[in-house]
From TrEMBL:
Keywords assigned: Membrane, Peroxisome, Peroxisome biogenesis, Transmembrane, Transmembrane helix
Physiological role: Involved in peroxisomal proliferation.
Name recorded for this polypeptide: Peroxisomal membrane protein 11B
Source organism, top-level taxon: Eukaryota
Keyword Transmembrane among record annotations: yes
Length: 221
């Protein structure tokens, strides 16, 4: 029990840890609003307020996050040419997402003209969607490479420790793919609104998949 509490403290000390917790609040409240809207309007109103407050607080907490893309590019000098290209597009999309998310937040809290919100939301979501496509491609390539390396090691009959590392890395990458696909669906709801992506259940489940996959990846080992 003490170990779990210690890990929770470490998890919540991280920026990403807080973000995944508040993201859970955001999408649980979205599902609660959808479920209660017809029969319990007062409860639905409170759930909607919780959802909006959670979403806005996440945007404020992510201030300056777009700069992490530059560090990600700097940290991979030895990457293959293909990976360098994929990384540039992935991180560029993410930087657009986080940069314009600042203006979206400011317009929604009234610091900027509220009419800017829709335009900023579209640009931010478009960059987000583009970034996720390339991040997923990178993870799938690495999963395929890991499977090939694992087969070679298993044929050799030793290096169990290396096989274990490859399997652990594969789980983390599958969590990343799950989160990015879920967030891609959420981004599509802004880029190209449609009945499936914009349905409260689709958005709610996608948000929770993303939050909990991120929770798993950031949980202290």
């Amino acid at each position: 029990m003490d170990d779990t509490v210690d890990k929770l403290v470490i998890f919540l000390a991280k920026r990403d840890g807080i973000d995944k917790l508040v993201k859970t609040f955001q999408y649980v409240s979205k599902l609660a609003h959808w479920h209660a809207e017809a029969a319990h309007p007062d409860l639905a109103r409170r759930a909607k307020n919780w959802e909006v407050a959670s979403g806005l607080s996440r945007k404020a907490f992510r201030s300056g996050r777009f700069l992490t893309g530059f560090n990600a590019l700097r940290r991979s000098p030895g990457a293959t040419p293909l990976f360098r290209v994929l990384s540039v597009f992935a991180n560029a999309g993410e930087m657009v997402y986080f940069f314009f998310d600042h203006f979206l937040w400011l317009s929604r809290v009234g610091a900027l003209d509220a009419s800017l919100a829709r335009r900023m939301s579209y640009i931010s979501a478009f960059g987000e969607a583009v970034g996720y496509v390339f991040f997923v491609a990178m993870d799938l390539i690495m999963i395929k490479k890991g499977l090939a390396e694992q087969r070679k090691l298993e044929e050799g009959g030793d290096s169990k420790g290396e096989v274990k590392k490859i399997k652990a890395d594969r789980v983390m990458r599958l969590m990343a793919v799950s989160a990015n696909v879920a967030d891609f669906i959420i981004a599509l709801a802004d880029v190209g609104p449609n009945p499936f992506c914009n349905h409260a259940v689709t958005l709610g489940i996608s948000g929770l998949v993303s939050a909990w996959a991120g929770w798993y990846r950031n949980w202290p080992s």
